[in-house]
Amino acid sequence: MRIRLLTISERQPAWVNDGFVEYAKRLPKHLAPELVELPLAKRGKGGDSAKHKVEESERLLNAMGRDVQLIALDERGVAWTSVQLAEQMRRWTLDGRDVALAIGGPDGHAPFLLERASARWSLSPLTLPHGLVRVVIAEQLYRAHSILEGHPYHRA
């Protein structure tokens, strides 16, 4: 199993990339998330957000491959505790299929992508910038792994 973080976003500042890499390198190679950055749909004045969602969601689905478990990052999804994420990670590992964590563009995901997802994960009821989301995901994957391994990083 491998984890791919698929994101629709523009170039991120160095601190975002540094934070993501820092937590990803702490994980064993088979759990370290692979970052796949996909371009935003071209937006002009008076753009059609529904059309942008469709185009970007198609890019995400095309990038994830076959027989992959899709987890959509969605503000209306379920908020997992770190312990619940650890349990999800344990299930993903036992399932053996690759996992794609999908971060949509500024307009979110198209309905067909959400229907395809095996879960919808909400990091917070707050709206977070895309760069911060990828750092939080990498850190939480590391935290979940530390919980599963009985490592003292997670002290709750």
Q: What report would you give on this structure?
A:
- The protein is an alpha/beta fold and 156 residues long.
- The mean pLDDT is 94.
- The two termini are 28 Å apart.
- The radius of gyration is 15 Å and the shape is globular.
- A 5-stranded parallel β-sheet has the order 2-1-4-3-5, sandwiched between helices.
- The protein has one domain: SPOUT methyltransferase, trefoil knot domain (Alpha/beta knot, 3-Layer(aba) Sandwich), CATH 3.40.1280.
- The chain contains 5 helices and 5 strands, in the order βαβαβαβαβα.
Summarize this structure briefly.
The chain has 156 residues and is an alpha/beta fold. Helix content is 44%, strand content 19%.
Binned strand content: 15-25%
Ranges where pLDDT stays below 50 over 5 or more residues in a row are: none
CATH architecture: 3-Layer(aba) Sandwich
Give helix % range.
40-55%
Mean pLDDT: 94
- The count of strands amounts to 5
Termini separation: 28 Å
Reported for the largest beta sheet, the result is: 5 strands, parallel
CATH class: Alpha Beta
Overall morphology: globular
Secondary-structure element order, N to C: EHEHEHEHEH
As a whole number of angstroms, the C-alpha radius of gyration is 15 Å
Whole-number total of structural domains: 1
Which structural class do you get from the secondary structure elements?
alpha/beta
Return the CATH topology: Alpha/beta knot
- Spatial order of strands in the largest sheet: 2-1-4-3-5
Instruction: Please work out how many helical segments DSSP would assign.
Output: 5
